Amino acid sequence: MVKKFYIIRSGKNPKNSKDTEHVFTGASPRQAALKAAKRGYTNFMFRERGRRNSDGTVTIHVFKGSWKLVKYPRENKPSWLPDKIRMPVVKKVQTARVEEI
């Protein structure tokens, strides 16, 4: 598994969005989206840093995310861990290809 860097983009439309300074890592866009959702992002877009498609475009991944409180699944939890923890939930809305970043 290769660690990739995904940059969050601001804006409503993938074609008119701009990069922000927030970067999340993961082997896949979904893994980075889970990290972003756990930190409170609800509607967000990612692009992979340093990668272009063969036709010179950039793929933008659009996600909708949230988190919910769930009971910790294991019995032997650490003493400092609360009874309920945040579980991130994400859904991929679309992927878009843009020519310019």
UniProtKB/TrEMBL annotation:
Pfam assignment, any one: MC1
Superkingdom as given in the UniProt entry: Archaea
GO process terms (BP): DNA protection
DNA-binding found in the keyword field: yes
Keywords, alphabetical: DNA-binding
Role summary: Protects DNA against thermal denaturation and modulates transcription.
Protein name: Chromosomal protein MC1
Species this protein is from: Candidatus Naiadarchaeum limnaeum
